[in-house]
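Weekly modeling sync, notes
Attendees: S.R. (lead), two postdocs, one rotation student

Agenda item 3: backlog of single-chain predictions. S.R. asked that every request posted to the team notebook include the full sequence so nobody has to chase files. The rotation student volunteered to paste the first one in as an example of the format we agreed on. Action items at the bottom.

Example entry:
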Amino acid sequence: MTPRRLAYILSLALLLALPASAQAGGRVASATGVKHVNGRALYVDVVVAVARGQSARQATARALVEQGAKRAKPPGPGGPGGGEQYFYSGLKWSPPSVTQNYNAAGQPIAAKQALINTHSDWSSVSGSTYRIAYGADTQRCPSLVKQCAGPQVNDGNNDVGWAGLGGQTLGVTWFTPSSPEADMALNSHFAWKSTCGSSGGSGYDVETVILHENGHVAGLDHANRTDSVMFPSYQAPRCTLFDYDKRSLANLY
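Predicted structure, as returned to the notebook:
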């Protein structure tokens, strides 16, 4: 048996081992944690498929343990702005510009266009100077992601790729507010679809996950409003920003 064939069989076995609700594209939850590496705080957001009969807290707790992180709120100031309460992670870009690169290795669904679609969402907010754009294709595994080879380090790149993240984890974004960098990985062991891109498929919508995670890349924390893509739970695809998200970003930048 070839190594590639063996890897395919193992990936299929992992997928089939997931609860049915974790395969079908059901409820999703998100949470943030912290891990200290060589005295530095690395923060991670986990996006998790919640199995039937499981609470969002149980699902995210397991995912954070798998990432070696403890549940924690990032050190962002948050606070009111324009009469509303906004929530920030402490990650803020100066100048307010981010370039993301994409590694397609191991992708179960083509996600480059979904990634680029979210760039236009976050970069076109009226009253905001924040911009995020596509840089280049890359072969790097995102350096801050735990499942990549070697230690978790800042390499100066903001990369997006695929990895085997653990049973119910759909995606992770690791970030360091002290020296701004944000790396994202999606779980290559899940079934994915592209509802926002109208290409169909089964499983979880890839653009919805990236849109939420790129909110964390921008420096937004989880919101307590359901009319936000940063609300840490959802059951249906979210393909565009809500007005609250736009006001939150414009208040930060």
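Discussion: group reviewed the output briefly. The two ends are 54 Å apart (CA to CA).
Action items: rotation student to repeat for the remaining queue; S.R. to check formatting next week.
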